[in-house]
Amino acid sequence: MLVQRLGAPSDFDPLLDRIRGARIVMIGEATHGTHDYYRLREQLTRRLIAEQGFRFVAVEGDWPDCERVHRSVTAAPGGLADPQAALERFTRWPTWMWSNAEVARFCRWLRAWNQERPREQRAGFHGLDVYSLWESMQAIFDYLGEEEPASLEAAQEAYRCFEPYGRRIEEYGAASRFVSARCEEEVVRLLARTREQATADGPDRFSAWQNAEVVAGAERYYRAMMGGGPHSWNVRDIHMADTLDRLLDFHGPGSRGIVWAHNTHVGDARATDMAADGMVNIGQLARERHGADAVVLVGFGSYRGTVVAAPRWGSPAEEMVVPPARPGSVERRLHELLPERAVLVFGGADQPGWVTEEQDHRAVGVVYDPSFESWGNYVPTRLGERYDAFVWCDDTRGLHPLPALTSFGEMETYPAGV
């Protein structure tokens, strides 16, 4: 195991050496609301794009919202001139995950970097998630209305199937358990038609296809969500892994991609208690599909500080105190062993035993109650198996949300919130 103190972006050199040759790098976070994680992730990502030719960043966010950001950072026709304006249009709670000053800073850098390069060499910004059923449906209507009006009927049939449930789409999932309310056939027809139209080249066709995949994934997700158990989690992470694979294909042979998501999605589920519950995640799936040598998984963690989160589902975000990590946890051990900030690169014969021992590892979602620290908010983890590297910040501070257009909550990520 190699340990490098972090003080400047150049201190990531040992990790970049480990990444060299990998096709996929997943960079995690122990919370969705910590400035230090976002800032260090940005520093690492900038170097991967500028020095190693990575072609896109794919985040744990909705495809339509991130498509607006993508068009801005790539200076595509019709895209907003300021990426922050695109981020401020995020309306799904929790908006602060991506609509924050830290992401805006990165996206402004990415736009400036892209504008110095030919369009075919510009790095993109995409969403991996499955929740945006209505937004993706509208995007399909907009595309077909302009480009393929003859194909509108399939989209309209899918829309009419969901329409009785309105924006409370969880009611569709509940109804599908008891009556013949499934929209699966209509969605499959929509997906097949959009796939057929997307066989030609072009970003607009690809985006329409991806929106159809989101509609199909959302239908499965909301139906599975009502059944309980791990199935809905797996539907979501498999959808994100499939989206990542489509992006790699779309960006061309040999293209390389970066994923930004919570540790619970990035760190290999097989090295946690998630596996015993039958859960998979995108880190595990990427290793299985592409091979461990082609994938580098990077986790993040801290001992104490503050975080932006919400006390209840759908409530406004606030900055909360993250108490010192509990005894026996990864975070407590690293607090005792390491300096303020460091990066650990796992591998080799000199790994200490605690790297492969199971220990509690903190995971904070968008809903957080610090009083639960004595019994919740931790995932049993074998750190050196879950990640290829780990970025450590002893003390952290909350990020800086941008003004939100709305702050209401929806059930769509409940109860995971990560």
Describe this protein's structure:
With 418 residues, the chain is α/β, with parallel strands linked by helices. The protein folds into two domains: 2-54 and 256-396, EreA-like (biosynthetic domain) (EreA/ChaN-like  fold); 133-237, de novo design (two linked rop proteins). The chain is built from 15 helices and eleven strands. A hairpin with an 8-residue loop joins β6 (295-309) and β7.
Task: Provide the gyration radius in Å.
Answer: 21 Å
Relevant CATH superfamily of the largest domain:
EreA-like (biosynthetic domain)
Overall domain count: 2
- Percent of residues in helices: 40-55%
| Beta-strand content bin | 15-25%
Distance between the termini: 29 Å
Which class of secondary structure composition applies to the elements? alpha/beta
Q: Supply the CATH class of the largest domain.
A: Alpha Beta
What is the strand tally?
11
Judging by the overall fold, what is the CATH architecture of the largest domain?
Answer: 3-Layer(aba) Sandwich
The pLDDT mean sits at 91
Number of helical stretches of at least 4 residues: 15
The CATH topology of the largest domain is given as EreA/ChaN-like  fold
Biggest sheet descriptor = 9 strands, mixed
Order of helices and strands: EHEHEHHHEHHHHHHEHHEEHEEEHE
Uncertain ranges: 406-415
Query: What is the 3D form?
Result: globular
Key attributes of the depicted protein:
nine-stranded mixed β-sheet; EreA/ChaN-like  fold; alpha/beta; 15 helices; de novo design (two linked rop proteins); 11 strands; 15% strand; two-stranded antiparallel ribbon
